[in-house]
Amino acid sequence: MPFYLEIIVSISLLIGSAFLLIGSYGLVRLPDIYMRLHSPTKASTLGITGILVASMIFQSHLKGFLSIQELLITLFLLITAPVAANMIAKTALHHRAKPLERTQNQELIDVIRDREPPRSPHDPS
């Protein structure tokens, strides 16, 4: 393997590992569910992406052609992580999980929780 590819793979692994470490620390350290959503959805997604990019470069060099399995996994994670975070936030709202006292705009939580669902344009009522 050429030295420049080893450098690229190593840097990508280090960046990905740093983001995963920060995301894991945030998941343990942040105090409530609404803040904890940011660690797995932002930092950890970037960390996994860095590691999968390193794997894609390494496997592409070994096989001699572009390895797309890692690219597909990365795209899947980048698409599904925000959706999963949205569902977790909606579940926390539904179960009335309390935010911290110092959280700003807490009155919006009640507004969001108690709002009416949108009506269909074909609804007769």
From TrEMBL:
Record keywords: Membrane, Transmembrane, Transmembrane helix
Transmembrane segments: 6-28, 71-89
Biased composition (Basic and acidic residues): 110-125
Keyword Transmembrane helix tagged: yes
Domain of life: Bacteria
Disordered as annotated region, ranges: 100-125
Keyword Transcription carried by entry: no
GO molecular function: sodium:proton antiporter activity
Record InterPro entries: PhaG_MnhG_YufB
PANTHER family in the cross-refs: ANTIPORTER SUBUNIT MNHG2-RELATED
Protein name: Na+/H+ antiporter subunit G
